[in-house]
Every structure is written in structure tokens, then in C-alpha cells.
Amino acid sequence: MNVLEKEVNQEETQKHTMTKLAIICSKGSLDMAYPGLILANAARMCGVEATLFFTFWGLDIVNKKKIDHLHLTFVGNPSVPVPAMIAGLPGMEGIATTMMKREMEKLDIPSIREMLEILDDAGAEMYGCQMAMDMFKLEKDDLVPQVKEIITAMDFMDLAADAQIIFI
Amino acid sequence: MTTATYTHVAMDKDGYLLNPTEWTMDLGEAIADDLNIQLTPDHWRLINFAREDFASKGQSPGLRRIAQQTGVAIKQIYLLFPKGPGKLIAKIAGVPKPKSCL
Q1: Domains within chain A, CATH numbers bracketed
Q2: Deepest of A109, A123, A159, B47, by most Cβ within 10 A of its Cβ?
Q3: What does the H/E/C string look like for chain B?
């Protein structure tokens, strides 16, 4: 590749390079927690700024009491490989969660708690939603220390002004 | 600017070496220079691990694996490669983009 081609390529790369990603995490089930955290981590590994905003049930992901007990949701999930009647039986979600965690351990996928530590070390910024905190009667101390601040939706707009936004 | 030292090697559109066997230490230095990274022994420790791991496993290590195997903390790795260690280590080491998401 000659120098000119390289310059052209660099220009193209710059044109398509994302510089900032903001992810809104609004769900607290295990299967909805991972995607946001993995994407934020991928962003940081690529040198993209990453901001995570935890709101509504998404606060469970950063809630000290709940972080280690997130589980799968079966009801209303058409991808579950068992009939809805059986999927809704007590204990089913617990069994499936245990099975999934075992598989993830085999693949060396970090726990949610460890994912948050990795994200913090990687320089991702995490925020809790003021309104949801009030609704669930939570204080900042109820959240893991990686959460930097409790902010409002309008604060989030400022933080995400020049970012690509993903809602999960 | 040492661009001239590697205009003869083939790279993909994202800047990863197409043929890892063409890599030399000088080439690694030149690529790092282009990415505005001044390589120190701490950088080389990670780059060398990526090369060794690619040679033995046949695939580029993800960042988590690099951290676990070298014992260098994630935080430290980001200080060394602030503009995205996941990509930069692989580019300088002349190995493909890691397939791992972690």
C-alpha cells in the first residue's frame, strides 16, 4: 500500500469512526444486563468513550443488594425453549439462571460485578437515574461504588450530546 | 515519521497486518510511531504476549486474556494505550483484530 492509499484509507476510517457511545440500561434481568455492559466494554477497547445510564429496573444492575442475584426472565419471552405453561412454573427461572451462569463460567465470561469493575478500570462512566432512584427509594450508597453520580434525564442529554445512543 | 518503513507490507483497511509473518520489531515501532505511541518496555511486554499467544493459539488474545496472562491490570493497560488497547495492541503486534468480545 503506498502512502497516498494509506492517507485515503485513514480519511475513510476517520469518517466512520465513532467517538462516543451512551447506553441507557433500563432492564434488570441477567440477559438484559450483559449486552449493555459488553458493548460499553467493546467501545472502550476501541478507544470510544462510553457512558452508561441506569434507569428503572436497570438500577438492579448496579444495586449492591441485587447485583449478584440478577436472573433470567421467562414470562413473555418467546425465545425460551420450553412451552410458556412450563416456563411460568415456580423455580424454572432459577434453574435456567444457574445453567446459564455455569455455561458463562466455562467461557470465562465475568460476573456482572466483575464487568462493572472492568468498565470502571477501562474508564467508562456510570450514572444512576434520579427519578428512578426516588421511585425505588434508593440512595447513592445503595449502589456499587463504580456509579459516579446520580443525574437527571436532562443531565444525561448533556452528557450524551455528541454520542451515539443505545437503549436497552 | 517512519511510514516509509512499512509501505511494502500489506494491511487491511483497518490497519491490521495481513500477513503476521512479515512483522519485525522495527515494523512494530513504525506502526506505533504512526499511532503516536512511544513504546516502553511495559508496552512491549503486552505486544510480545499478543505475538506469542497468536503464535501458539492461532488467534489474537482479547484484552481480558492479555490482562490475565501478563498480570498487568486493565487500568494500567488503558494508561499505556489510552486510545483503545483492544485494537492498538493487535495492530502494533501485527496480529489480526481479536475475535473475543472481552
Answers
A1: 21-73+111-167 (3.40.1260.10)
A2: B47
A3: CCHHHHCCCCECCCCCECCHHHCCHHHHHHHHHHCCCCCCHHHHHHHHHHHHHHHHHCCCCCHHHHHHHHCCCHHHHHHHCCCCHHHHHHHHHCCCCCCCCC
Question: Which residues is A50 bridged to in the sheet?
Answer: A21
Name which of A13, A45, A125 to mutate to probe chain B: the one with the most chain B Cβ atoms within 10 A of its Cβ.
A45
For residue A58 the three cell numbers come to 436497570
Question: Cα–Cα distance between A44 and A41 in angstroms, integer?
Answer: 5
Asked whether this complex has an ipTM greater than 0.95, the answer is: no
Nearest by CB to B11, from A1, A48, A118: name it. A1
Domains within chain B, CATH numbers bracketed: 9-93 (1.10.10)
For residue A105, what is its C-alpha cell?
A: 463460567
Confidence of residue B10 (pLDDT cuts 50, 70, 90): confident
